[in-house]
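sorry for the late reply, my laptop died twice this morning and i had to redo everyting from scratch. anyway the thing you sent over, i finally got around to it. pasting the sequence first so we're on the same page, its 918 residues, then the predicted structure underneath. double check i copied it right bc i was rushing
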Amino acid sequence: MKFSVSLPFFERKSAVDSGEESTENSGGPSFEIKTPNGINNRRINPLKKIIRKRKKRQKRGKAGESRLIEILTVLSTIVLILMVAGLLGTVAVFAYYSRFLPNPDTLLQRSEELSTKLYDRNGVPIFEVYGEKNRILVTIDDVSPHVVNATLATEDALFYDHQGYSIRGMVRAFRNTVLGEGLQGGSTLTQQVVKNTLLTHDRTLTRKIKEFILSLQLESNYTKEQIIQMYLNETPYGGQNYGIFTAAKAYFNKDPKDLTLEEAAYLAGLPQRPSYYSQFGSNPQAGIERKNYVLYLMNSRGWIGPDKTRHYVNDEDYEEALKKDLPFQAAAVSFEAPHFVFWAKSVLIDMFGEDVVEQGGLQVTTTLDLDLQKRAQEIVYEQIEPNKVSNNLYNGSLVATDPKTGEVLVMVGSKGFFLPAEPADCVSGAAGENGCKFDPQVNIALSERQPGSSIKPITYVTMLEQGYTAAFPFLDVPSKFEGSSPSNPYIPRNYDGIFRGPVPLRTALGSSLNIPAVKALRLVGIDRMIDTAERMGITTFTDRDRFGLALALGGGETKLLELTNAFAVFAAEGTYRKPTPILEVKDSYGNLLYTHQPKGRTAISEESAFIMSDILSDDFARAPVFGTGSILNIPNHQVAVKTGTTDEKRDNYAVGYTSDIAVGVWVGNNNNERMNPYVASGISGATPIWRQFMNHYLEGVEDRYEFEAPDGVRRMEVDTLTGMLPVDDFDSRYEWFINGTEPTSRSDWYTRVEVCREDGRLANDDCREADRTERKTFVRVRAELEEWQYSVDQWVYEFYGGDLRYYPPEMKSRLVYDNGSVKKDVDPKIEIVNIEDGGRVPLVFRLKTEVSTPHDIKVVKMYMNGEKFNEDSSDPYGYNFNFNVSDIGKEIDLKVEVEDSKGNKGSDSVKFTIVGHL
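ok and here's the structure:
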């Protein structure tokens, strides 16, 4: 196209006109530039320059695109090679491992697994953990749909959506492996069938590969329903119960097709940890909680069917199933010492793993003495059963250990494992009237219950370890201690309601007095007492903050086995050995896998252990409460023993030992219901069972003095009242002391003072100058801590009354003498001697006043806030206050006024504030 444009300075000229050839694709029109006068023409083409630059850029872009294509080609080639290599590697791995894989069709022709056998210490068989021997196969048509629903909802909700494996599960398993958490998680129902039937249970990568391959083969060879059937027939449900048929029979005595929703949920929850969740294990409540979780899964998640429909339990059925109790029935086949067996099995599982114990063919020699076990079971049953209704006492437990080794010789967990629960319609594990008084499968020996006074030796041995002595004087008097709040003090009482005043530690423990025990715990401290308990094997005092002084009387739960074994520490001269049910374990080929080594560690000193054994076997120390010759004594044998009863008679214990055996007995009701109070006492209830078993054990055993004194103790004569060196004209006795703790002086309870003859007050100078003094010995009964002195003073007045030997004077005489004779024309003087003006007093205390006068005293009157509240006409003058909790914080004006026989008067007054505790 050619055109011409006239501009002021430009005139367009075509290429023809200029005599130049037109170039094709030249990029546009050309211009001839003219100056206004037509000089210096020059042709230009600005579009060509633009086009040239664009072409250069296009060339550079094409070069870059070429390089990118080359890189992508190389990368694609590498990826393709890796994919091919990966595929070939996978095929190679599959081919390699497939050579060694079992045939899935052998599921129809399985060989039996090896059962683990348990024997007593003498080689007598007591239990066999069966594998294949206790499995009966069923078809899926013979199983309740509830079982299938519960199993899929719990184990593999997407079972119908995969071909034997779960990518998500495999990723989770890979992550656990990378993080060092082990090869776990990621198993589908199909993989579990493979694991339970065709492979070992080793957690290795090789086994996982084999499991994956076999799962694919299983999915290709069988229908989904057949795989579910295989799972239900092969899965362990606890104990010797393999397969749903055996499990349904063992737990509910039903065929699988008759299982209810809640029963199916319970069984579906067992395979994860069969022994832990089993009703026949040591923690049956865990199985109930697991059942509730399975029901939750069935309600909230359900499972996806082959038609992509979600199957779940509706809310109404879910809520109803949660409320229903499970009707457990006893196992059809009995075996020896079932409570012991289940405990031993749980210990074995901790040692070797559940799979090895269930199917590994172990040969286990236990510590059980079957003959002793049978006799113990008979004694417990015979002592409880005949009078269970009148005594309202339905159950009992007994354990026996060897102090030298920690071996458990006997474990009677209830009066009869296979007996029916009582009442028949009771709820297992519940407290109160709906619960079972007798819950046969619950192992009381391993259950936590309050021990009552049987815990007291641990507090007292803590005192000995801190340097106190068996002669230390306690004041068994009415006392109030700090409670949960100032308005709620802790006020313990003795079992028989009697307070005995000054008693040595020996008598306080032997007679099981409560007030001294609480004071002992206050003196040593709760933490130190718990430290001692833990060194002696008590594991249940973990939450220390919840314990107060009531711990001294059994306010913290213990286990009978641990409590009995703690007493074994005394018998073992201070050495603790962990209780064990296992002596020896061999594999199925007879190779030794484990043998018990009775190693121990020092829990308390040998000297403290000896003194405790001496006290607990001292019939005279028990005499104030139990009398001499009680059934706690075993003829011709020195046996140490301690009883215990909890508040409201809910638990009763007897725990005792010789140097060869420690025996603990508990009686009560599983639901914590009160027993007949006349039965659950220190020398009834558990004690007859303990005595009968101990007599049986000691038959034929040579008579001997069981507990020999170590070199670190000595026996010496002491003052009976104070435990210090003897005092003339006062009783004395003998006591054992750890070297370095024996007394070296007389007690400061005894004081010999100079008094004026006329008024009995502390001698003043006038009295001495008139030679009217005499020296007298007084006994000042001193409290263990100053804060308890008021209560002690009150008891002294009530117990000793007018015996002035127990009231050492504190007031200095005010008498005046003239030429050796006392002046008569003076007013009487009275002093409040135990309250300072502006001081504080506790709720319980005794007011003490003293009078100095040459005349007889007619009366002492007492006023509180201006009102008279008491009169006293005999020495010692005073009053026992028992304020109410509501009085705490009140300020009191106290005045005392004395009138002598001549009508002369004198007075004294103080102000004080009432507090809960000093």
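Confidence is low (pLDDT under 50) at residues 1-44, 108-112.
thats about all i looked at so far, will dig more tmrw
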